[in-house]
Amino acid sequence: MASRAPGERDIAIVGVAESDEMGTVPNKSSLQHHAEAAHNALEDAGLSKNDVDGVLTAGFSTLATAEYLGIHPGFTDNTSVGGSSFVIHVAHAIAAIRAGYCEVALITHGQAGRSTRGRVPGDPNQPVAQYEAPYGMIGPPINYSMACARYMHQYGEDKTRQGMAEVAVATRKWANLNPKAVMHDTPMSFDEYHDSRWVSWPFHLPDCCLVTDSGAAIIVTTAERARSCRKAPVWVLGAAEGHDHNLISQMPSLTSTWARESGPKSLQRAGLKHDDLDLTMIYDSFTYTVMVTLESLGFCGPGESADFVANQRTAPGGDFSLNTSGGGLSYTHPGMYGSFLLVEAVRQMRGECGERQVHKKGDAGRNPAVSLVNGTGGSLSSTGTVVLAT
User: Fold this and answer.
1) Quick one: which of 301, 267, 216 has its CA closest to 385?
2) Looking at 144, 151, 283, 288, which residue is catalytic?
3) HSE of 363, CA atoms in CB hemisphere, 13 A
4) Is 144 a catalytic residue?
5) Which residues of 258-295 are buried (b: 16+ CB within 10 A; e: fewer)?
């Protein structure tokens, strides 16, 4: 994308959707969630599966996914670096379309994350099994809590805790406005947050994302094809990606993510600045993920995110619209969440969000015109950032 003019409007997202049912859906496989989401996104775009010539997914082989969907793609991408993968796939779809490998790219995700939950033995040949698991580092809540504990040590426990509470309560308020959210009917006060049970210190239960069954899909295509689609296009103006570790013990800094690289690059490629953004979607695997990502993206300085989100600034009615679906904390999270960030951003920019609809900064009569979407994957390992515009 660097060779293109900043903010060039030649590639668009034209369809987004979730699977038919989300939450606890024991009668459906992961591939069924893939298929439902893909079908619904194609319907949203006014396209059929016969129009699709590029398939991108993570967590499942594109061989299995495309076969199940009945698609024979001319371009296939199975990049899998955790929950950020689907945001990263947007940039890969753009590159493939511009190179002529495909014209209509389907990014799809589905996971029966709750119904099939259970401890699955890891590959004993992987470094994590040799160098971290024997010492009790056996999953995201533990890995992320270690990073958060370091952050508390650097910037203060009480201040950090209040910032985490602000994020959890604000995100739940958005979910209470989203009929599709798992926690739609479950409000939460600050007292309820602080009194909730521990999972892995310093994380209470509301600091941790949900585990659900669900799927989501995104359709990316050319400006020419977008003109004949059912709804107005949402343009992809800039994108960037990267990662700096796999094992949490090898993370260069537990208080800074690769968003420090992908955020500025995506904005530069879009020809925009932070002040141009109307909406921000940040992967919220944990409340700490939101705080460290806000800092890494440059919205505030190191150690300043608790002040940045204070007084429910990111809640409905606040002046910083963040994770308006209810996020991975309160809306859905089947195991990887990046695709759902894109779905919500596009819907907000189209004005399709009903009671939780937000508006362009300084203009309550218009939908958000510019959005930043940031996905995080692995143990704070990988990042994909895209900038979208109407």
Assistant:
1) 267
2) 283
3) 10
4) no
5) bbbbbbbbbbebbebeeeebbbbbbbbbbbbbbbbbbb
As to burial, measured by CB atoms within 10 angstroms (0-12 exposed, 13-18 middle, 19+ buried), residue 304 is: middle
φ, ψ for residue 90, nearest 5 deg: -60, -45
- Which residue do the tokens 């992908």 mark? 262
What whole-number distance in Å separates Cα of residue 271 and Cα of residue 275?
A: 12
Q: Burial level of 217, CB count in 10 A (0-12/13-18/19+)?
A: buried
Cα–Cα dist 223/8, whole Å: 11
Structure tokens at 271: 């020809």
Name the burial class of residue 7, with classes exposed (0-12), middle (13-18) and buried (19+) by CB atoms within 10 angstroms of its CB.
Answer: middle
Which class does domain 11-116+209-389 fall in?
alpha beta
pLDDT of residue 117: 67
Nearest residue to 130 (alpha-carbon basis) of 46, 249, 298: 249
- Name the residue with tokens 């991408």: 77
Helix, strand and coil percent figures for the chain, each rounded to 5: 40, 20, 40
Contact (Cβ atoms closer than 8 angstroms) between residue 215 and residue 37: yes
Point out the residues of the chain with pLDDT beneath 50: 1-2, 120-121
Question: Between helices 338-350 and 85-99, what is the axis angle to 10°?
Answer: 70
Say how far residue 385 (Cα) sits from the centre of its chain. Answer: 9
pLDDT tens digits for 209-233? Answer: 999 999 999 999 999 999 999 999 9
Verify whether residue 331 is a known catalytic residue.
yes
Taken as a whole, the chain contains a residue count of 390
Contact between 71 and 55 (Cβ < 8 Å): yes
Q: Annotated catalytic residue: which of 144, 151, 155, 331?
A: 331
Amino acid letter, residue 109: H
Query: Which is it for strands 54-56 and 104-112: parallel, antiparallel or unpaired?
Result: parallel
Tokens of 78: 């199975």
In sequence order, which residues have a C-beta less than 8 Å from that of residue 191 and are 6 or more positions away?
none
Stated pTM of the model: 0.96
The reported pLDDT for the residue numbered 44 is: 98
> What's the distance, CA 377 to chain centroid?
9
